Amino acid sequence: MTSTLITNIGTLVTNDPSHPGLLGLVEDAAVVLDGSVVTWTGPAADAPAADQRFDAAGRALLPGFVDSHAHLVFAGDRTAEFNARMSGQAYTAGGIRTTVAATRAATDAELDANVGRFVAEALRQGTTTVECKSGYGLTVADEARALRIAGAHTPETTYLGAHVVAPEFADDPAGYVDLVTGEMLDACAPHARWVDVFCERGAFDGDQARAVLTAGMERGLIPRVHANQLTHGPGVQLAVELGAASADHCTHLTDADVAALADSTTVATLLPGAEFSTRAPYPDARRLLDAGATVALSTDCNPGSSFTSSMAFCIAVAVREMGMTPDEAVHAATAGGARALRRTDVGRIAPGARADLLLLDAPSPVHLAYRPGVPLTAAVWRAGVREV
Ligand code: NIG
Ligand code: FE
């Protein structure tokens, strides 16, 4: 195995609590990678020798972004729907069915190419871990193939057969929940790590969501929930009650919802791309952080409500619109995402962690918010391999 010394790092974000501040910063730092893992971090002056050397030229190095919420297995786009929304039309869950029709009509090769394209697009912007949901197939065969395809690109696969009621079951939602918790789950569970449900008016109510999540848990899947996106609802409380890894969106929260999250191990995953692209009010990250909840930031990349793969964009919006400091937003996009995926090998730079690294074309991680819209990726390593 070849070791690499990255030296002359102006600011190193470790997210390691043994270093100062929320981001565990080390100034004038160096990092050593060996194979796929980090083996050493510390002041450049103390760095050990390695087989090869990379000069970071005083720029900032941080853990690769962990995007813990994305919907990448789909075909088509929804430009017309976006255009209509920007002329005043409201977002509804119903648009999902447009993408379902296009996805069902696509070949395996087309869907695989689409996922590959989005994973590569995200990687170029510093995302080294991405979660990927099914949910645009809504038949036994189409959901299973979505997860098979997703699994070729990431281990973080999520069964979202309960995205909306499939059009064939429009008059029989209970029958669709039976399918999702029965035959469809049988076909999907072998290809998924997580189970998710869109708990929302127009999608699935609290009882239906509970049935979907508990059936998945009985098959060894870990729950995460689309909760409280468009309206107040039971999603967050259900997520906490079932010990879900994450409650995602968290846009409309009561004080009791905030307290429940703060008191739990369930991460509040905020998805500002969705509010941006649906012209909706942003979630209040400050309220969650002040209450003591763990917050993650993710893209929600999907063709309907949030067609961005840019974690930097989400950081900038979270800082400007959601009450987060730049450090909190960077932490949420790295360590927070790792927590939401229950991963200890990513989202931090420390000996033993996977060598997932983002070198910024900037001296400080604050520039991710300070220079919105500017491509700042200078280099990316994933599992020790230089990818960008
Ligand atoms: O997370 N909320 C449900 N699912 C997606 C939207 C999917 C779509 O509109 O196609 C979301 O925002
Ligand atoms: Fe989503």
UniProtKB/TrEMBL annotation:
Pathway: Amino-acid degradation; L-histidine degradation into L-glutamate; N-formimidoyl-L-glutamate from L-histidine: step 3/3. Its cofactor is Zn(2+); Fe(3+). 4-imidazolone-5-propanoate binds at R78, Y136, H163, Q229, S305. It comes from Kitasatospora acidiphila. Keywords: Cytoplasm, Histidine metabolism, Hydrolase, Iron, Metal-binding, Zinc. HAMAP family: HutI. Fe(3+) binds at H69, H71, H226, D300. Catalyzes the hydrolytic cleavage of the carbon-nitrogen bond in imidazolone-5-propanoate to yield N-formimidoyl-L-glutamate. It is the third step in the universal histidine degradation pathway. The keyword Ribonucleoprotein does not apply. Gene3D superfamilies: Metal-dependent hydrolases (3.20.20.140), Urease, subunit C, domain 1 (2.30.40.10). Binds 1 zinc or iron ion per subunit. It catalyses: 4-imidazolone-5-propanoate + H2O = N-formimidoyl-L-glutamate. The gene is hutI. NCBIfam families: hutI. Belongs to the metallo-dependent hydrolases superfamily. HutI family. This is Imidazolonepropionase. Pfam families: Amidohydro_1. Residues 61-364 form the Amidohydrolase-related domain. It is an enzyme of class 3 (hydrolase).
